[in-house]
Amino acid sequence: MNQTLVQRREKSATEERSVGNNSWIVAPGVWRLKDIFVNVYIIQNRERTDWVLVDTGLKSTASKIRSLASSLFGGSGSRPKAIIMTHAHFDHRGSLLELAEEWGTPVYCHHMERPYLTGQSSYPPADPSVGGGMMSLLSFTYPKGPINASDYLKELPNDGTVPELEDWKWIHTPGHTPGHISLFREKDGLLIAGDAFVTTMQESVLAVATQKEFVCGPPKYFTPDWGAAARSVKELAALEPNIMATGHGHAMYGDLARKELHKLSREFWKRGMPATGRYVKEAAAFDENGKPVHIPSAKGVLIKKIAIAAALFALGYLISRQRKNTKGISKLATGQLGSALKSSALVALGATAAASPALPSIPLIPAI
Ligand SMILES: [Zn+2]
Ligand SMILES: [Zn+2]
User: Fold this and answer.
1) N or C: which end of the chain has fewer CB within 10 A?
2) Ligand 2 center to residue 222 CA distance, Å?
3) Nearest ligand, measured from the Cα of 368
4) Residue 37 CA: which ligand is closest?
């Protein structure tokens, strides 16, 4: 950890503070708004007292953004100078067309994210085989098709500056998507990381019960290039951020958060990514414009999982049948063994990794 860098920075905030209605002030001039499970950010340009919006959440988020903006800036100031997209997944671009049209505001993204915002390409398919819970299992139903925001779309400047925000720079952090970016404010070490990594595991019963914040890798079922994702986390950890605000979860602060991020980076192969999955052995490939040019087949992984699941289920079924012919303790034991094997079949299919004591529950929980 680079302590000199950390100490040189302003200590602008040590925790986020609620400002009502699922909204928090993260640090001076930066607010987080949560809609269902995803965050958007409002950043005020303190030099000029205007603001930009980072990501647009789901379709339901537009009205919540309007109402937070007017409570912060008053009715007349409730239109931003720009919308900046960390990436274009459905839960980050849900209100984009509605708000860009209403505000007539330019929308900035990395040039490799353009295909997904100009109607040209769909993202590679989600990978429901990564395990971890219902969000993964259902991921094949999430929209992956593009929208067309060409009328408003501009590319982020090559020099790393962020339009309308003097204090900020953008960093290309691919892996989760080819044109994924993060935003960084050097003076107080405030990082908005999008989904390059996230700070929640909301599918984990343990995490929900204890409200423990956790630095996790990018949402697993939606990440088609794990090598790039690992390099991006390493690059973000090297910034030694003091405040980490991500696409999902609470903001995290200070030494503890930094330590967690470094740990994630060091042990990315076991904490940040799934053990198996469609994109684990082979990444999806994209051309220089961000369009997918090679998408690994799902067959190998799925067939293997289905074969394991079928074998476990058959064994569980046979043992459960055997139970009828046994008595007392052995009846109980065979019953339990049969149920355990049938549950393991579900685990093999990725239904609920946390249900199996033999598998680590933390790294396999999806974070969206
Ligand atoms: Zn995403
Ligand atoms: Zn997301």
Assistant:
1) N
2) 9
3) 2
4) 2
Amino acid at 223: T
Looking at 243, 274, 294, the residue that finishes a domain is 294
pLDDT digits (tens, 9 = 90+) for 126-153: 998 887 777 777 888 889 999 999 999 9
Ligand 1 centroid – CA 48 distance (Å): 31
pLDDT per position as a tens digit, 328-360: 655 655 566 656 555 555 555 544 333 332 333
Give yes or no: residues 126 and 168 share one domain: yes
Residue-number span of the structural domain to which 70 is assigned? 3-9+16-294
Residues surrounding ion ligand 1 at CB below 5 Å? 89, 195
Sign of CA pseudo-dihedral 98, 101, 106, 112: positive
CA distance 13 to 218: 25
Cα atoms in the Cβ-side hemisphere of radius 13 Å centred on 203: 24
On the question of pLDDT at 207 being above 70, the answer is no
The answer to whether residues 252 and 324 belong to one domain is no
165 lies in some domain? yes
Residues 6 or more apart in contact with residue 4 via CB below 8 angstroms: none
Contacts of 353 (CB under 8 A, 6+ apart): 131, 132, 133, 347, 359, 361, 364, 365
Is there a contact between 223 and 278 (Cβ–Cβ < 8 Å)?
A: no
Query: Pick from 283, 282, 182: which is nearest to 233 by CA?
Result: 182
pLDDT for the residue 286: 98
91 CA from centroid of ligand 2 (Å): 6
pTM for this entry = 0.81
Q: Within a domain: residue 260?
A: yes
Distance from the CA of 198 to the center of ligand 2, in angstroms? 9
Q: What's the 39 CA to ligand 2 centre distance in angstroms?
A: 8
Identify whether 228 is part of a domain: yes
Q: Does any domain span residue 365?
A: no
Domain boundary among 294, 312, 340: 294
pLDDT, residue 298, reads 84
